[in-house]
Design the sequence.
């Protein structure tokens, strides 16, 4: 009996807590799941990006769980403490200011360390601005990529946009209101003039708006009403249009670069060899490029 009691006590002592990754509303406070409320009520600690901001949400739902700050400036130092609490058996919920944690928000170093330590990490899914914008955008959803915030500096931003010049996926970015105009102007300069984009503004809030068109049209849309530059933005860029020939965009790009520099047959032969394509199809395309 004494052995069984000691065994039970050792087992209880060895039990570790869980880290819950809890999604919270991105605007409308009603966009929170029953499970999220239950978890936030029952965990021992809530680690929040901004305790004052999250405090309003918790107060709204009558959640009185202990709240600590965990953000990009203290996460590296704080993660060791959080892991120690989990190892003692405490359950902890991680939340960000809005939406799903780690999606352009703090949390990766902590989650990665928890995984490396063999601790249980449990997602509690819910609101996410990326998915909310994509599903209502009218752009293709079968293949997409989330790229976070675009770089601030002009050259780095141009390089990031040039990198998606030929992508066949919908590309999604977050953007700050003070940079939305400059970013749209850079898109108009770097990508094809007809490339479809969507500006999603203030998602789930009272002044939610979607605009779909070209980057130049989006700039005109902003000009019509200065208030449109305010708020939080998700910027979606549609996939590059496929040419009718079925030739990969990267091959077309290379052919376009070579055609002005050498005879069409030679350019077609080089590209055909590089991409394992039919030379005749490429040669026909050089004729179209020259006529354009």
Sequence:
């Amino acid at each position: 009996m004494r052995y069984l009691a000691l065994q039970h006590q050792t087992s209880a002592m060895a039990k570790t807590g869980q880290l819950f990754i809890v999604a919270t509303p991105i605007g409308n406070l009603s966009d929170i799941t029953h499970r999220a409320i239950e978890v936030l009520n029952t965990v021992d600690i809530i680690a929040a990006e901004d305790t004052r901001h999250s405090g309003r949400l918790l107060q709204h739902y009558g959640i009185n769980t202990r709240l600590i700050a965990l953000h990009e400036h203290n996460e590296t130092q704080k993660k060791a403490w959080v892991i120690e609490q989990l190892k003692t058996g405490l359950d902890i919920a991680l939340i960000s200011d809005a939406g799903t944690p780690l999606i352009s928000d703090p949390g990766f170093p902590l989650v990665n360390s928890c995984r490396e330590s063999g601790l249980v990490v449990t997602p509690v899914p819910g609101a996410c601005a990326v998915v909310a914008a994509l599903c209502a955008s009218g752009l293709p959803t079968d293949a997409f990529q989330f790229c976070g915030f675009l770089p601030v500096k002009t050259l780095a931003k141009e390089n990031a946009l040039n990198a998606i010049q030929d992508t066949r996926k919908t590309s999604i970015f977050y953007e700050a209101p003070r940079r939305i105009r400059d970013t749209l102007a850079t898109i108009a300069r770097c990508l094809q003039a007809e490339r479809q984009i969507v500006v999603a503004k203030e998602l789930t809030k009272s002044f939610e708006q979607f605009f779909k068109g070209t980057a130049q049209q989006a700039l005109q849309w902003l000009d019509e009403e200065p208030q449109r530059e305010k708020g939080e933005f998700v910027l979606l860029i549609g996939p590059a249009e496929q040419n009718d020939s079925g030739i990969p965009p990267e091959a077309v790009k290379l052919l376009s670069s070579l055609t002005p520099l050498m005879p069409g047959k030679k350019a077609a032969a080089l590209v055909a060899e590089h991409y394992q394509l039919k030379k005749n199809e490429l040669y026909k395309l050089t004729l179209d490029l020259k006529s354009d």
Notes: The radius of gyration is 26 Å. The domain at 130-237 is CATH 3.30.950.10 (Methyltransferase, Cobalt-precorrin-4 Transmethylase; Domain 2). The chain is about 45% helix and 15% strand.
